[in-house]
Each structure stands twice: as C-alpha cells, then as structure tokens.
Design a protein that fits this description.
Blueprint lengths: L2 H9 L12 E5 L2 E4 L3 E4 L2 H4 L8 H11 L13 H10 L10 E5 L2 H16 L5 E5 L8 H5 L18 E4 L15 H18 L6 E6 L2 E2 L5 E2 L2 H14 L2 E5 L23 E4 L10 E5 L1 H4 L15 H16 L2 H21 L7 E7 L2 E6 L1 H4 L15 H11 L2 E2 L1 E2 L5 E4 L7 H19 L1
Parallel strand pairs: 3-15, 5-6, 5-7, 7-10, 10-11
Antiparallel strand pairs: 1-2, 2-3, 4-12, 8-9, 11-12, 13-14, 14-17, 16-17
The structure holds 4'-deoxy-4'-aminopyridoxal-5'-phosphate.
Length: 443
C-alpha cells in the first residue's frame, strides 16, 4: 500500500465512502487504471464520463480554454464557451419551450436553484415541493431534503429545506406489490396517492412544484412509465404546479435519446442537467422558459464558479462529439447486447432464481435480485457485500475479475452505466465477467 493511500485512509473524512481503498491513477476510454490493476469501468464515475475517460477531443478543448480564459465570472460579463454551450444545447432540448439557461457546478446546486425558480415564478413563495419516494436529488441541505432513496443523506443533521412531501413512484417492489403488477395498475395507484396528498396534506395553492427523475437513478434504475409522466403533467397544468424534471443522471444520451423525457414527450417546466454535460468537468445547469427566469431579480442566479469557462468549453466539445460520432447509435447497439446478456442469465435454469427484474433504457440498466423482495436492504452502500445481498456479492466478484460496477440504494440492484462510447468487444468482455460472477454466486 502506498503512503498516499495510508494518508487518505487516515485523513479523508470517513463519511466519504468508496468501493475500495485504491488509488485511481489514470482514466482512458472505458478503462480506469489504479495503483494495482486496470478495470473496465461500468460506473463512469456515477454516470459522468459518458464519452469515456479523457476523451482526446474534450481534453484538447479544455487545454485550449485553460490557455485563453479560465475564469470569466458570469456576473462580470458573458464569456464565449458559456453562450456557445447554450447554442449547442438549444436544438437538443426535449421541448422547444426550454429557452432560458444558466449554469452551475453540481447537480445538487442546480436542483436547489430549480426549487427557487419554481417557488418565485409560481408566486407560491413558501410553496411545498413534492418529490418521489426513492428519489435522489443530491447531498446538500436543500437537495438532500428532496432525496428519499435512503435515510443516510439527511440522517441526524436536523431539518433540511422545509415543505417537502414524498409521493409513491410506480415501482412495484417499493410499493410492496408483486413484481408482476401491471404497469397501468401501478400508475393508477400512484396518481391516486398524489391526488390524495394534494387533497389531504399539501393543497394545490400551497404546492409550488413536483420534482422527479424520468428514470429513478440511485433509487433503483426504474424508468417512469410514460402514462405516469403524462398524468403528472395534467395534475401540474390543472393546479398551476411546476413540473421539475431532473435529468442529471439520465440526460446527454444515457438512455438512448438525448434526454429521457423524449420517450414520453412530456414537457418539463424546469429541466435540471449535469453529469454527462461536460464528461467530468464540474458543470450543471437549469433550463426553463424565459418568462419564468424573467421573474427572478437580477443577480439572484449564479455563483462564483457557475458556468466555468473550462467546463463550458468541454461541454461544447461534448455536444459536437455526441453529434459527429453518432453516440446515440452506439448506445442503442450496445444496449441491445447488454440486455440480451442479462436476459440470458434471467432465464438460465442455473441463475434465474436470483433475478427479480431486468429494466432500464439505453445504457442505464438495472438488475434487481430476488433477495431484495424479502425486505429493503436499509442503507445499502456502494459496496454492500453481505451474505443476503446478491448484488453486493456479484459486485465484489466482478471487481476481482476487473469489472467495476455500482449498486443502487435501498434495494438489491446492480446498475450498468458504461461509457456511451463503449466498443462491442468491451461490452462483450463486461457481460462475460458479469455472467461468470453471477454463476459463481448462484452456486
Ligand atoms: N440528481 C440526480 C438524478 C443525480 O443522480 C444526482 C447525483 N447522483 C444529483 C441530482 C446530484 O448531483 P451532484 O452529486 O452533482 O450534486
């Protein structure tokens, strides 16, 4: 063990968890090199390095920007990469009404700004915000109050942002219903529960926004049924409630479309973006209608580093690569291969008893194991290899064989978030390691 790892173990706050105490030395395409070995990286740093580690074109764009302008503070003036990024993003927005942008550093920061805009622009100053059971919106005080995937993010730290209510999300297992429950039934139940919430606890006049991820991420990799999203839109329209769609993890091609919202066609009032936007450079954004941001006092949106020039320059190049390298086509092809491999395990007589569900969109795929149908695994962490937790054990085996995977919160789910640029051979290798690991755990 190197001295630096020892320093890390001693002095990095223990509240910061990690899969393993190793040193990540280098990232290259789909691979992560550590002080010990190299891994095929199916985590993408939690859905961030979508175009592969250190994509040469993104690196070059950032290097050129470093030599030109590092910090063009947004309260002092426009800077080129900031506005150029808007020009790149305008045509790929999931709805043409989304025409007003500002950039921040993290997903959490963007979520909190979205709430401010929803409250101010709806005129419901102290309006409640309804989030989904199983949601993840971040770790800062406000965002963690909206996070319901597991308790640790807001445990014993006092009340976060006030006025938060959680409503059920159409995820059978989380609703205590059999996996076989028809989707229509789940959606009907969830919309009914939301109507009840608005009738009994948070009056529409006191409700500023509903926030959700179109594919629940940390909470289990469950896509929201299209009919549920349409139902939410209707409820929002009927009651002057803002619909905030958080595409921090599902955006920028992850699900096979530029944004997951495109699958349903449902219009967000406010869209929250981050992660894949700049392939690892810290950048997030809030996109909404100009008429809403026009209600915000001048200077009320922004921050010292918001819309950093290097991150925005990287973001511009990412948008170019997405188009020129036909990344969405690769997502579709690799997704089909991954799903085929997972379905094979799900139906194989030796392994099928472990599987509860295989689900997801594009390269945002979750595998839920039956072990979680007994009870939720409270506060499952990023590496939770207990004897009852199949996902944690599979994750550990995969790691030993050179494949890095993440689990999700609360239930026994392994998630697949490989780079969108992953090659056919790399996908084949990842699936081979996963299959071997599942077969070993199944014995
Ligand atoms: N929203 C979603 C859907 C996320 O997945 C995340 C991060 N996992 C966040 C918000 C928070 O982003 P950040 O960690 O950059 O604050």
């Amino acid at each position: 063990m190197t001295d630096l790892i020892k320093t890390g173990q001693k002095h990095v706050a223990s509240g910061c968890g990690r899969i393993k105490d190793h040193m990540i030395e280098k990232g290259e395409g789909s691979w992560l090199h550590t002080n010990e070995t190299k891994y095929l990286d199916f985590t993408c740093g939690i859905g961030v390095t979508n175009l592969g580690h250190c994509h040469p074109r993104v690196t070059k764009a950032a290097q050129e920007q470093v030599a030109t302008l590092v910090h063009g503070q947004c309260s002092i003036g426009f800077h080129r990469p900031y506005v150029q990024l808007i020009e790149k993003l305008l045509p790929v927005m999931p709805h043409p009404s989304l025409d007003s942008f500002f950039f921040l550093n993290s997903g959490s920061e963007a979520v909190e700004n979205a709430v401010k805009i929803a409250r101010k622009s709806s005129g419901k100053t102290h309006g409640n915000i309804i989030c989904m059971q199983g949601s993840y919106h971040g770790r800062t005080y406000g965002a963690s109050a909206l996070t319901k995937s597991k308790t640790i993010y807001a445990e014993q730290v006092g009340h976060g942002m006030p006025g938060i209510f959680a409503t059920p999300f159409p995820y059978a297992h989380q609703m205590g219903l059999p996996q076989s429950t028809p989707e229509d039934e789940l959606v009907k139940q969830c919309l009914f529960q939301l109507e009840m919430l608005l009738a009994q606890q948070s009056a529409p006049a006191d409700t500023a926004a509903i926030i959700l991820e179109p594919v629940i991420g940390e909470g289990g990799y469950v896509p929201a049924p299209s009919s549920y999203l349409h139902g939410l839109r209707q409820i929002c329209d009927d009651n002057n409630i803002m619909l905030i769609i958080d595409e921090v993890q599902s955006g920028f091609g992850r699900t096979g479309k530029y944004f997951a919202s495109e699958y349903s066609g449902v219009r967000p009032d406010i869209l929250v973006i981050a992660k894949g936007i700049a392939n690892g450079f810290p950048l997030s954004g809030v996109v909404t209608r100009k008429e809403l941001t026009d209600k915000m006092p001048k200077g009320s949106l922004g921050g010292t580093y918001s819309g950093n020039a290097i991150s925005c320059a990287a973001g511009v190049e990412c948008a170019n690569i997405m188009r020129e390298e036909k990344i969405l086509d690769n997502v579709k092809a690799r997704s089909a291969e991954l799903l085929a491999a997972l379905k094979e395990l799900q139906t194989d007589s030796e392994t099928k008893h472990l599987f509860a569900d295989v689900r997801g969109l594009g390269l945002m795929i979750g595998v839920e194991f039956v072990s979680s149908s007994k009870h939720p695994i409270p506060n499952a962490s990023i590496s939770n290899a207990t004897p009852n937790n199949v996902g944690g054990r599979v994750q550990k085996r995969c790691l030993e064989k050179g494949l890095m995977l993440l689990t999700t919160s609360a239930f026994d789910v392994i998630r697949f978030i490989p780079p969108l640029t992953i090659t056919k051979d790399e996908m084949e290798l990842g699936c081979k390691i996963f299959k071997e690991s599942v077969r070993e755990v199944a014995k």
